[in-house]
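Deliverable D2.4 — example input (structure tokens):
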């Protein structure tokens, strides 16, 4: 394997001066990692306070954000086809009448006047990405007090698994969470190092319109629908027109030699005195492509979700995890990266020194921070804060691989594209609707696809381009009175191609399709796949 020497300022020189970073190895095709490679883990030593602190897992279609609370745990859920709205007409005859006026004003150098006139060419906003809901776990009073020094929450990029560990009342509890692509489920295992110590209640909830009930002894079934149009979550939003329907089923399994399961108010499940518990979440929707109205969809999300769970009814958690690992690592292990750099850093484990951990004060790190460094407990947040003062090349490696992890987790063949937030969104009104923005954001999501050997993960982008070309040919013909196809700066699951609302400077920007097509060419240059 060729060794590449790259200066920090991105020149191509060799040497070992203090300011240089050196790429020691870059395994482009190997399916294994070296034994001495830095552990690729995003680590925290307290539960998440904010949604952005939670740990993301995903299989391309289903996603979860793991908060890691002790007494109560929250797994915020997404399914990538849950959107408001329905297919629409993305043409505007009025656009074509205004376009010559705007062109003339631009030709005459009257740019302010052209912008004002172009406001008549803007259109409607996109539809909105919606959350699926939440798995809510309550561990009761026995977990109210825990040993803070024992707590650890981590996302292992090498295994695509989130883990939470802590000690409460002298018992070590462990939670493991991963999203399986081969079996299309999210799996959670809760265990303890003491027999019969696992007790909790679990519920499914959603900010969307839904109903839930217990099925048999061990399932919670949640059925609901997205709003039929973008609007605040009010009852009439659902009554005006039917939106995409969804179903989520949470299935519970416990140890056979200890523990009991009961239901609470026919909606929640309660586990008492088990050695371990496994939760399996499957979900699906009635979405049947960008050209099928939700009211016309023949897809049955309840039947599809039940079929997913039936297909794995005889599989143990360890078997699900083994299949997940093979599938994920076949992609993730294609590229490894190690960077060395001469440094003043003093911690061999993290590459981060006490002096660089400042907790907001460059000169006076807190006593707690110092103790964390000495004990090897340096969170990823600490390492980020320290980077400006004492650069840690292993953090660069972690960030590089985290980008690959997110693409694998949010975009797989057959899914929708990785949207403005990947697949992770907790709000019914997320920032910028979480819609794919074609004026750089969507492209940025897929920049690592070919160069980082994840070409399969780009297939959803190509599917979207095909759908945009269909709708965009109508937009081009009506709005621009020309052939070909066009799309503007933002789209959604219905393949919107017309201009959005807002400032014409960005709303009336017809270059989205052209920019997306550069990904087709790049795919060809890497694969020669015609």
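Example output (designed residues):
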């Amino acid at each position: 394997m060729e060794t590449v020497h790259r200066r920090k300022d991105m020149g191509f020189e060799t040497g070992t001066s203090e300011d240089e970073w050196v790429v020691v190895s870059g395994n482009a095709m190997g399916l294994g990692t070296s034994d001495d490679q830095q552990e690729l883990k995003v680590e925290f030593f307290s539960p998440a306070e904010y949604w952005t602190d939670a740990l993301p897992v995903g299989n391309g279609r289903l996603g979860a954000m793991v908060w890691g609370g002790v007494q109560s745990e929250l797994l915020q859920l997404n399914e990538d086809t849950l959107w408001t709205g329905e297919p629409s007409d993305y043409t505007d005859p009025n656009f074509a009448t205004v376009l010559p006026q705007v062109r003339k004003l631009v030709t005459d150098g009257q740019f302010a006047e052209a912008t004002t006139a172009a406001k008549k060419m803007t259109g409607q906003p996109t539809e909105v990405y919606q959350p699926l809901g939440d798995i809510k776990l309550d561990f009761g009073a026995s977990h109210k007090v825990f040993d803070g020094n024992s707590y650890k929450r981590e996302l292992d990029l090498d295994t695509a698994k989130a883990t939470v560990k802590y000690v409460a009342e002298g018992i070590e509890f462990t939670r493991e969470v991963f999203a399986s692509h081969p079996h299309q489920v999210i799996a959670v295992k809760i265990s303890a190092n003491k027999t019969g110590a696992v007790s909790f209640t679990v519920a499914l909830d959603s900010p969307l319109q839904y109903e839930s009930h217990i099925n048999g002894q061990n399932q919670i079934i949640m059925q609901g629908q997205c709003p039929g149009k973008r609007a605040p979550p009010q009852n009439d939003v659902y009554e005006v027109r039917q939106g995409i329907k969804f179903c989520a089923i949470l299935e519970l399994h416990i140890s056979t030699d200890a523990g009991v399961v009961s239901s609470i108010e026919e909606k929640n499940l309660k586990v008492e005195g088990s050695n371990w518990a496994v939760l399996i979440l499957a979900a699906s929707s009635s979405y049947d492509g960008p050209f099928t109205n939700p009211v016309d969809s023949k897809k049955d999300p309840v039947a599809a979700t039940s079929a997913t769970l039936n297909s794995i009814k005889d599989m143990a958690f360890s078997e699900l995890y083994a299949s997940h690992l093979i599938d994920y690592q076949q992609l993730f292990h294609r590229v490894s990266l190690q960077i060395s750099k001469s440094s003043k850093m003093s911690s061999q484990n993290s590459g981060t020194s006490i002096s660089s951990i400042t907790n907001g004060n460059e000169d006076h790190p807190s006593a707690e921070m110092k103790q964390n460094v000495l004990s090897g407990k340096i969170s990823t947040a600490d390492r980020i804060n320290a980077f400006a003062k004492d650069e840690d090349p292993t953090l660069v490696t972690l960030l590089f691989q985290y980008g690959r992890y997110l693409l694998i987790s949010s975009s797989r063949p057959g899914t929708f594209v990785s949207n403005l937030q990947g697949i992770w969104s907790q709000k019914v009104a997320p920032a910028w609707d979480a819609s794919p923005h074609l004026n750089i954001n969507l492209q940025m999501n897929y920049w690592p696809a070919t160069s980082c050997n994840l070409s399969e993960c780009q297939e959803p982008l190509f599917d979207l381009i095909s759908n945009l070309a269909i709708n965009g040919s109508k937009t081009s013909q009506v709005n621009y009175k020309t052939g070909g196809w066009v799309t503007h700066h933002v789209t959604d699951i219905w393949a919107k191609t017309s201009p959005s609302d807002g400032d014409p400077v960005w709303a009336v920007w017809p270059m989205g399709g052209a920019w997306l097509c550069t990904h087709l060419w790049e795919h060809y240059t890497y694969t020669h796949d015609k």
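The radius of gyration is 25 Å.
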